[in-house]
Amino acid sequence: MKEMLNIALPKGRLGERVYRMFEKAGFECPLLMEDTRKLIFENEEKRVRYFWVKPSDVAIYVERGAADIGVAGKDILLEYNPDIYELLDLKTGKCKMSISAPVGFRDDPRKTLRVATKFSNIAKNHYMKCGREIDVVHLNGSIEIAPILNLTDVIVDIVETGKTLKENNLEVIEDIVPISARLIANKSSYKFKNEIVNCIVRSLSEQIDSEESR
Amino acid sequence: MLEYSVCNPEELAIFKLRELFLNYGFRQYRMNKFEEYDLYVRNKEFLISDGVITFTDTNGKLLALKPDVTLSIVKNATFENGVVEKVFYDENVYRVSSGTGSFKEILQTGVECFGDIDEYSLFEVILLAFKSLSLLSNDYLIDLSHFGILSDVLNESQIYGEIRKRILTAFKEKNPHELNAILSEFDWDPSLVETLTSLMKISENAPYAIKELKHIFVSEKALLKINLLERIVNRLEKLGYLDRVRIDMSLVSESEYYNGIMFRGFIKGIPMRILSGGEYDSVIGNMNQFGKAVGFAIYLDLVEDIMDCPKNYDIDSVLLYNEDESLNDLDQAVRELIEKGFSVRACRCIDPKIRFRELYRLEKGKVELLERNA
């Protein structure tokens, strides 16, 4: 009997959007989109099992083999550097990792730059490349408040439309890296479930190419 | 006589593998728990993780708990024409766990082969990798590659430094998007782009992959390496391992520890590689020594997931006694149960965490069976 392919999807709009892609690829699981508190869904006929996972945890589930494949944002992959295969850029959930500061901010290179962020590793790596001395203040939410209250000088965070920044009188001063959703795979699962994983990659890739050529 | 039933999965694995390595003429190598920290400073690019646990010895010397075994074994290697040193080990190493971010003790076994290595010696080590995994599981695969093929492509195009690291990382992650992004940053020769992109895609059954490689590369230098891979695959096929081997050119050495043939083993049910090995002549060269080297390590801390046979009971028998019982009677009752082949825990009350099959009580010198669980 063929085994199930375990797929970790990030809870939220991104996960729903990506599920539609899997559905179009022929790996549907209709119950998944119903309004329910259930977290695990199976389609025995297609041999797939989906589960909803906190977006920042998808990479852990995949790295540790609880999920064979999953969808995670590039921000999470850069921050936690999991040992996985990054098979495909799904070209959805696009945003960017940027440095933002109060409008009119001028960096004084004589001083240690105070940086508020949820993404400490991304921030440290970026500033290390620049050779800039920083003091990282790790926060878990509402990062935009930090420079307003003079907790820090700047923030490193995801920017999508820029509306939150604008409404808090902040502006992007530098882009670090573009972010989008990525299809990732456990390295061991990729070996043993190669056929179905490659089938999914091909199909999702065709959908992305078709969307881009419109 | 060693009873396998009393061994935990790692111990069982060590004994099985030790027998295998001894049969192939490898000598056991026992080493110190500690190594001079200087060895790792001089060779830090060859270490898997950054952290090293250090301490100052009584004579003021800075020592380290070993994060690596290979460096300790090969540091004193000597070269003699025609001589190949073959050793195996089972040792604990201390590294930073990527999962927890803190130090972890990892039980590791493996083989090292160094000196005037010929093709047979290289193949023997690869064969031992296959035989090792077959002792641990029926369901395993080994990826094989030759890092020299990619390395030559990068060297010939003079790709070094940060760009080289990024390309190697993209290969390691099987990340075609990242590779394309790197290649589109500069005005590379289109044939280089085509070569790298095609090379990354090769991850399949060995004979087909060899054909693909011969299609991509025509230079004598590359063909020497591809032909070596082909000979190895052919020998593995003759010994019945063809369905266990895949050629995967995304198997690269980011730190360039390995310089030639590389292999990585996976067992179904274990989420990460359990075996890692390859040719590491560059490590020998870095120590200003001559000769070649090849070896592999098996990470036994991962074995427990697949070898553990869950037991229904922790102990066969619990023997309850009161404090006023004669110690002689108690000792005799315990010995008699043990002689019957049971494991016995004598105690004054039942520990709710312990699962037992039979419950006895010793009262006034007589043993009575109170309970038997199915």
Q: Using DSSP, what is the number of strands of chain B? A: 16
Number of strands of chain A: 11
How many angstroms separate the termini of chain B?
A: 30 Å
State the shape of chain A. Answer: elongated
Strand order in space, largest sheet of chain A: 2-3-1-4-11-5
Mean pLDDT of chain B: 90
Question: Can you characterise this structure?
Answer:
The complex is a heterodimer of chains A (214) and B (374). Chain A contains 8 helices and 11 strands. Chain A is of the alpha/beta class. In chain A, the strands form 2 sheets. Chain A has a 6-stranded mixed beta sheet. In chain A, strand 2 and strand 3 (48-53) form a beta hairpin. Helix content of chain B is 37%, strand content 26%. The mean pLDDT of chain B is 90. Chain B has 374 residues and is of the alpha+beta class. Chain B has helices at 9-23, 37-42, 70-74, 119-136, 147-156, 161-172, 176-183, 190-201, 206-216, 220-238, 281-286, 304-307, 327-339, and strands at residues 27-28, 34-36, 54-56, 62-65, 84-96, 103-115, 140-146, 203-205, 245-248, 261-267, 275-279, 292-299, 315-321, 344-347, 356-363, 366-372. Chain B is elongated and about 90 Å long. The interface between A and B is medium-sized, with 21 and 20 residues.
List the helices and strands and how they pair.
The complex is a heterodimer of chains A (214) and B (374).
Chain A: E1 5-10, H1 13-24, E2 40-43, E3 48-53, H2 58-63, E4 69-73, H3 74-80, E5 85-89, E6 95-102, E7 113-117, H4 120-130, E8 134-138, H5 145-148, E9 154-159, H6 163-167, E10 170-179, E11 181-185, H7 187-192, H8 194-212
Parallel strand pairs in A: 1-3, 1-4, 7-8, 7-9
Antiparallel strand pairs in A: 2-3, 4-11, 5-11, 6-9, 6-10
Chain B: H1 9-23, E1 27-28, E2 34-36, H2 37-42, E3 54-56, E4 62-65, H3 70-74, E5 84-96, E6 103-115, H4 119-136, E7 140-146, H5 147-156, H6 161-172, H7 176-183, H8 190-201, E8 203-205, H9 206-216, H10 220-238, E9 245-248, E10 261-267, E11 275-279, H11 281-286, E12 292-299, H12 304-307, E13 315-321, H13 327-339, E14 344-347, E15 356-363, E16 366-372
Helix pairs in contact in B: 1-4, 6-7, 7-8, 9-10
